[in-house]
Design goal:
- The chain is mainly β.
- The chain has a single domain, classed as Coagulation Factor XIII, Chain A, domain 1, CATH 2.70.50.60.
- Strands 1, 2, 5, 7, 8, 9, 11 and 12 form an 8-stranded mixed β-sheet that branches.
């Protein structure tokens, strides 16, 4: 009799816990083993993240000093649309191996952050290398995109090595 009474009390609580557990937020991690690019995302989804330089997808993280490369998040979905537009921010930080910040841009899209949803399916940030970077040194690059109308976020981090032009 006590067992039945216990089940009558606990059953609604279990249902509430299961319902709460099913209302999970979209989140995950993707890692490109060839470049070391690690992408974490929450409340936004993407098909893939990659590094591109000179119109070629990279399979390494060696970047010639003075070259540009692009961090790309492809087939992005889940951005909140308001009045037919999405609003996205883009943060960029480059630090040396000791943690000294060489470059930090809080929002590269500031003032130009509103897009049609179809134009925000690929989020990308161009990273330029050069002074004060040194040849054969490693640098940590963090590129973050966030939904200014929602809670979604994508963080891309990679350690690049500066090389001489091959």
């Amino acid at each position: 009799m006590k067992a039945i009474k216990f089940l009558q009390v606990i059953s609604p609580l279990l249902v509430l816990l299961l319902a709460y557990g099913c209302d999970h937020k979209l989140a995950g991690v993707k890692k490109d083993l060839s470049t070391g690019l690690v992408t974490t995302y929450k409340d936004i989804e993407l098909a893939k993240a990659l590094l591109v330089m000179n119109d070629e997808v990279l399979n390494h993280a060696d970047i010639p000093i003075g070259e540009k490369f692009i961090v790309i998040n492809d087939d992005v979905s889940g951005l909140v649309t308001k009045n037919g537009k999405v609003k996205v921010g883009c943060y960029l930080k480059i630090a040396d191996k000791s943690g000294k910040i060489l470059l930090e841009e809080k929002d590269l899209f500031a003032g130009n952050d509103e897009f049609l949803p179809k134009d925000a399916r690929m989020l990308q940030c161009t990273v330029t290398t050069g002074e004060p970077m040194k040849w054969e040194e490693n640098y940590n690059v963090l590129v973050s995109f966030w939904d200014k109308q929602g809670k979604g976020r994508i963080d891309n981090s990679v350690t690049i090595r500066m090389i001489d032009i091959p």
